[in-house]
């Protein structure tokens, strides 16, 4: 499924970011280089405040880089690319409270000018994928946190981005929902072939979801190591997490982050 032969879907090359503040220049990212292949799931981990969100903002064109580039399919990213969708941790701020679940999911499709039948099919299949059938006419504030995050993910899926970028997407939901949403990510990748980049603080989550884990360290940030996770596409919350290799990878990544912090 993962195509390492052709150009990478995403490329981060020599990316650096310094914030200019009233108190002077704050270098946050020194030099990051890594690729993400089409159909790959890559998690980005690192100590708190290392610059993970800053990296995602550069990667999604929400802010400029100081030097180096991020590119998608060979095109430099200098604003939010049409081929990307973003899911943030704070679903309460990303959903429109005055719109129903169905209308929230429908919203970004307006820009795509799709034939009506395809538009409706995308909305309903996204709602099915996240398990929200029956909740279409509810408003976000009538739903639990986990359900709201499902709406945010359904909205991203319906858009069918080539690349789905998520910043701590499951940090605010309970453990059971978290597992369900992780499995949803794996299904979305299998079903739509999406490339997925996730920032997470949860090392187990990174190992469970990733084909590769990018570990950030040093301040300003550099890539400490890129860890391959060779579990294939089909994973299971019980059996995959019980594998001895899972524990080894967890320990390796934990030690790298502890040293980097
Ligand atoms: N707009 C900004 N202006 C100045 N400094 C900023 C700005 N945004 C972030 N920073 C600083 O950059 C550093 C990295 O922040 P960032 O949020 O990218 O890290 P993070 O790894 O995502 O953090 P966490 O793990 O806590 O979520 C922090 O020291 C933060 O204070």
UniProtKB/TrEMBL annotation:
Q: Which GO molecular function annotations are given, in alphabetical order?
A: ATP binding; ATP hydrolysis activity
Gene3D superfamilies for this protein: P-loop containing nucleotide triphosphate hydrolases
Q: Which CDD domains match?
A: ABC_NrtD_SsuB_transporters
Q: Which SMART domains match?
A: AAA
The protein's matches in SUPFAM superfamilies, at most eight in alphabetical order, are given as:
P-loop containing nucleoside triphosphate hydrolases (SSF52540)
Q: Which InterPro entries match?
A: AAA+_ATPase, ABC_transporter-like_ATP-bd, ABC_transporter-like_CS, ABC_transporter_ATP-bind, P-loop_NTPase
- Asked whether the keyword Isomerase is assigned, the reply is no
For this protein, the record's PANTHER family field holds: ALIPHATIC SULFONATES IMPORT ATP-BINDING PROTEIN SSUB, TAURINE IMPORT ATP-BINDING PROTEIN-RELATED
- Name assigned to this protein: NitT/TauT family transport system ATP-binding protein
């Amino acid at each position: 499924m993962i195509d390492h032969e052709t150009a990478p879907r995403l490329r981060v090359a020599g990316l650096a970011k310094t914030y200019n503040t009233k108190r002077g220049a704050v270098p946050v990212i020194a030099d990051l280089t890594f690729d993400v292949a089409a159909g790959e799931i890559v998690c980005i981990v690192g100590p708190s405040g290392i610059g993970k969100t800053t990296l995602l903002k550069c990667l999604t064109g929400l802010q400029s880089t100081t030097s180096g580039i991020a590119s998608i399919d060979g095109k430099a990213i200098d604003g939010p690319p049409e081929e990307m969708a973003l899911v943030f941790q704070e679903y309460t701020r990303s959903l429109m409270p005055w719109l129903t679940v169905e209308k929230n999911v429908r919203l970004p499709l307006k820009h795509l000018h799709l034939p009506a039948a395809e538009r409706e099919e995308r909305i309903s299949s996204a709602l099915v994928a996240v398990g929200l059938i029956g909740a279409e006419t509810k408003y976000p504030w009538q739903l639990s946190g986990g359900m709201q995050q499902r709406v945010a993910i359904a909205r991203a899926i319906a858009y069918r981005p080539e690349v789905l970028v998520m910043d701590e997407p499951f940090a605010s939901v309970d453990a059971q929902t978290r597992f369900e949403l992780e499995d949803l990510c794996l299904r979305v990748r299998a079903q739509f072939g999406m490339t997925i980049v996730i920032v997470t603080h949860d090392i187990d989550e990174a190992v469970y979801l990733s084909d590769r884990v990018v570990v950030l360290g040093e301040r300003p940030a550099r890539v400490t190591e890129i860890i391959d996770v060779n579990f294939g596409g089909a994973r299971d919350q019980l059996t995959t997490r019980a594998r001895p290799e899972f524990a080894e990878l967890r320990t390796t990544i934990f030690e790298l982050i502890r040293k980097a912090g």
